[in-house]
Design a protein that fits this description.
Blueprint: H1 5-17, H2 19-35, H3 44-50, H4 56-62, E1 69-74, H5 89-99, E2 103-109, H6 115-118, H7 127-142, E3 149-153, H8 159-169, E4 175-178, H9 189-200, H10 206-216, H11 228-238, H12 254-269, H13 280-283, H14 286-299, H15 305-315, H16 322-331, H17 346-351, H18 354-364, E5 373-374, E6 377-378, E7 385-389, E8 395-399, E9 423-428, E10 431-436, E11 446-454, H19 457-465, E12 473-477, H20 482-485, H21 492-502, E13 507-511, E14 524-529, E15 546-550, E16 555-558, H22 562-567, H23 588-593
Parallel strand pairs: 1-2, 1-3, 3-4, 11-12, 12-13, 13-14
Antiparallel strand pairs: 5-6, 7-8, 9-10, 10-14, 11-15, 15-16
Length: 607
């Protein structure tokens, strides 16, 4: 089935805009395959180093170029709950590779930070740029040129985007992404949020808060809310980089292990040494990028991907824009209600029909490009399935259920929760920004109120504790962009502003920083560009200025005459405290080179 006309039109627009950069990219990966993508170009000394610890039979096999070698890039550490299961994956993958007549080696490890640990802490200022570090670290692992395909072990926020950027820089190699799955359900996310608000108001103590948080985040696997980590998993499946049905199977289960073994064998089957060669750089084209954006909208996914998807596309020579993302949001209805867009968690989503049901509904509605290449083969239709464990321990796949298991969580296309995806570009004299409306009640999507200006989130929190945030207002939190301090997430402001909103005040947030993938019920215009440090108008806002945020009309306006704005001096901010400590001094160059948020906030430039 072909995609609907409006989806095709946006895809064609991206393809035409990207023509020169995409052709140059494809030429580079073709050259890489032709001149360097095999072990035969390595000297005997090179090879001896590369297989020194291998068995004698593996050394013989790797001495030629007829046996495929799978390079494993792992983001394992045992502090991230989502990544702890990866500890055992290399052994599982190596055994599966051996059974398939190939070899697997751990090519390298990449850093993996937990944004849940660093929220509101200095380390959060390293978070966004960790994506670029991960891409660079993965590239170092693959640079040894020992590999015919790559398996990427990663789940969380910046990690999967960074790994995919690296995979695309080695676009001549096939790449299969292997997830670990979500933790089992714990304390419901809405109950956890209530305890957070009680703590912010001084109505419960730290012990009660820690108990609630621990009951919510309680074991191996991703956090169960639908933030950036689980949005990553959705993207890898709908973009054809996971095997069908792989995303949301819990860790430590026989089906999870069966999917991992199958992924390793499939990666070896699609190398240039076989008949199903699937280089990731050719596979991830404009249609695949559009499919990812469609999935983001249909599920109410993380706002972080309005940055990451642009950087990922650029790594493949594709020029995606915020306007493309916004226009696709207008075309794609919201089919999933998972916290913070609803009360369910990702396990409930999976039980209701999960990715297979969602993909089938979107394909049948013409909202996805079906005629794409995936790591599983030709076309996206084989992803409209439900995975099962066969009697022999292998993965079996059945057609996705005909009906949703719970239409309050996962809706069929005719019963969509809302006609649009809920991500919108705001434009006006304050610049361009992104707003996620899928979790914001319609009556709160337009607000005009006086500004309260803060230079960091700590100032706002202090004002809240002092009881100074009275009446209706729009909080302006500036000097939080990529160049200022690495664009940290300001997730902790969600609780404070949520308390005020629940008291009956009309409040909103406008910032050149980011919010978490858990952006919630308070209207938030985020990623404002140009940022304050680059002379953006957000830096000229003063306390009491009238600001209008209209998520329905897509506008963000500072109600100050242009002549007066022109006379206002650019603000001077003391950012010295952000420059040192917790490794921040090592990222000075990243901050200096970072592109704008709407260009991917990357130190690598644009497509």
């Amino acid at each position: 089935m072909t995609a609907r006309h409006d989806i095709e039109t946006i895809t064609d627009r991206i393809r035409e805009r990207s023509k020169a950069s995409r052709e140059a990219y494809l030429a580079r990966i073709a050259q890489a395959r032709g001149s360097t993508a095999n072990r035969s170009v390595l000297s005997c000394g090179n090879l001896a180093h590369g297989f020194a610890v291998c068995s004698p039979s593996e050394k013989v096999a790797l001495g030629g170029d007829r046996v495929p070698n799978l390079g494993i890039i792992t983001a394992y550490n045992d502090m991230l709950s989502a990544h702890q299961p990866f500890e055992t994956y290399p052994a599982l993958i190596k055994q599966a590779a051996k059974e398939a007549g190939g070899i697997a080696q751990v090519a390298g490890g990449v850093p993996a930070m937990c944004d849940g640990v660093t929220q509101g802490q200095p380390g959060m200022e390293l978070s966004l740029f960790s994506r670029d570090v991960i891409a660079m670290a993965a590239a170092i692992g693959l640079s040894h040129n020992m590999f015919d395909a790559a398996a990427f072990l990663g789940v969380c926020d910046k990690i999967v985007p960074g790994l995919l950027m690296a995979a695309l820089s080695f676009g001549h190699l096939p790449a299969v992404f292997i997830p670990a799955g979500p933790m089992t359900s714990g304390l419901p996310n809405d109950e956890k949020a209530k305890v957070r608000q009680l703590y912010a108001e001084g109505k419960c103590g730290r012990a009660e808060l820690l108990e609630a948080e621990s009951k919510s985040y309680h074991g191996p696997g991703t956090c169960t809310f639908y933030g950036t980590a689980n949005s990553n998993q959705m993207l890898m499946e709908i973009m054809g980089l996971h095997l069908p049905g792989a995303s949301f199977i819990n860790p430590g289960t026989p089906l999870r292990d069966a999917l991992t073994r199958e992924a390793a064998k499939r990666a070896l089957a699609i190398t240039a040494l076989g008949n199903a060669y699937t280089p990731v750089g050719a596979m991830v084209d404009e249609r695949v990028i559009v499919n990812g954006v469609v999935g983001l909208h249909a599920t109410g996914g993380s706002t972080n991907h309005t940055i990451h998807l642009i950087a990922i596309a650029a790594a493949a020579g594709i020029r995606l824009t915020w306007q493309d993302i916004s226009d696709l949001s207008e075309a794609v209805p919201l089919l999933a209600r998972v916290y913070p867009n609803g009360l369910a968690d990702v396990n409930h989503f999976a039980a209701a029909g999960g990715m297979g049901f969602l993909i089938r509904e979107l394909l049948d509605a013409g909202l996805l490009h079906e005629d794409v290449q995936t790591v599983f083969g030709e076309g996206l239709r084989p992803y409209a399935i439900e995975p099962k464990l066969g009697a022999d321990g292998s993965v079996q796949r059945e057609p996705a259920p005909a009906t949703s298991g719970d239409e309050k969580i996962l809706a069929p296309f005719p019963k969509a929760f809302q006609p649009t995806g809920g991500l919108k570009v705001l434009s006006g004299n304050l610049g361009h920004a992104i707003i996620k409306t899928s979790a914001v009640k319609p009556e709160r999507r337009v607000i005009e109120a006086p500004a309260r200006v803060f230079d960091d989130q700590a100032e706002l929190n202090d004002a809240f504790k002092a009881g100074e945030l009275t009446g209706d207002f729009i909080a302006i939190v500036r000097f939080q962009g990529p160049k200022a301090n690495g664009m940290p997430e300001l997730h902790r402001l969600t609780t404070v502003l949520g308390v005020l909103q629940d008291r009956g005040q009309h409040v909103a947030l406008v910032t050149d920083g980011r919010m978490s993938g858990a952006s919630g019920k308070v209207p938030a215009a985020i990623h404002v560009t140009p940022e304050a440090l680059e002379g953006g108008v957000i830096g000229k806002v003063r306390d009491g200025d009238l600001v209008r945020l209209d998520a329905e009309a897509g506008t963000l306006e500072l109600k100050v005459p242009d002549a007066e704005l022109a006379q206002r001096p650019a603000p001077v901010a003391d950012l010295s405290a952000n420059a040192f400590g917790f490794g921040r001094e090592l990222f000075t160059g990243f901050r200096a080179m970072a592109t704008r948020a709407d260009l991917g906030a990357s130190a690598f430039g644009t497509a």
